[in-house]
Amino acid sequence: MDLERGEILVRSGKGDKDRRAPFPASASAAFRTQVKRVERQFFRELAHGVKGAALPGALARKLPNAERELGWQWVFPASHIYVERETGVRRRHHLHETAVQRAVTTAARASGMRKRVTCHALRHSFATHLLESGCDIRTIQELLGHTRLQTTMIYSLVLNKGAMGVQSPADRL
Question: What's the rounded Cα separation, in Å, for the pair 23 and 33?
Fold first, then answer.
């Protein structure tokens, strides 16, 4: 999360691709609050012998102090500490994907939605709203990480704006 650039960067996502998305300015206060909460929890646990997040690949060797730096910790940590089998080191991992999926399902039900809602539906909603706001299809293709434009074009079909999918310039007068 890069608040200064207004960007979310996801490393090694689906298909082992990196993806970027705009960070909503409306979420920055809540995000800062979450980071402060994680910071307090992290330093309290560090003082009690809980190590930081496990680093990917060879980073633990390259950056031996990084596991004790806040910048390498999970923004949304798991609710429980775990013990690594191989080393016996106590750590806190990230929030498990099923916890996020359950939260989305619970929120959908609480809002009165009757359809099945998944995290993936949020991706479709994101793309559709970008199209509705006038974002060009190539930018959406890049944000979604699609290799083929035809895959992204599927989103334009759900808008039901006619064959052209554009507004007449006369309507803007």
Answer: 15
CA atoms within 13 A on the CB side of 84: 14
- Strands, DSSP E only, in 41-171? 77-83, 90-94
Q: Of 144, 24, 10, 145, nearest to 75 (Cα)? A: 10
Cβ-contact 76, 94 below 8 angstroms: yes
Instruction: Tell me the C-alpha distance between 67 and 50, whole Å.
Output: 10
Q: What angle do CA 95, 100, 101 make, to 5 degrees?
A: 140
Structure letter (DSSP) for residue 169: G
d(CA 157, CA 151): 11
Question: Phi/psi at 95 (nearest 5 deg)?
Answer: -60, 130
- The whole-model pTM stands at 0.78
- CA distances 40 to 110, 161, 169, Å, are 31, 50, 54
- How far apart are alpha carbons 61 and 159 in whole angstroms? 50
Amino acid at 20: R
Residues 114-134 have pLDDT tens digits of 999 999 888 888 998 998 888
Let me know the angle formed at the C-alpha of 51 by 48 and 57, rounded to the nearest 5 degrees.
Answer: 180
Helices 137-144, 119-132: crossing angle, 10 deg rounding: 160
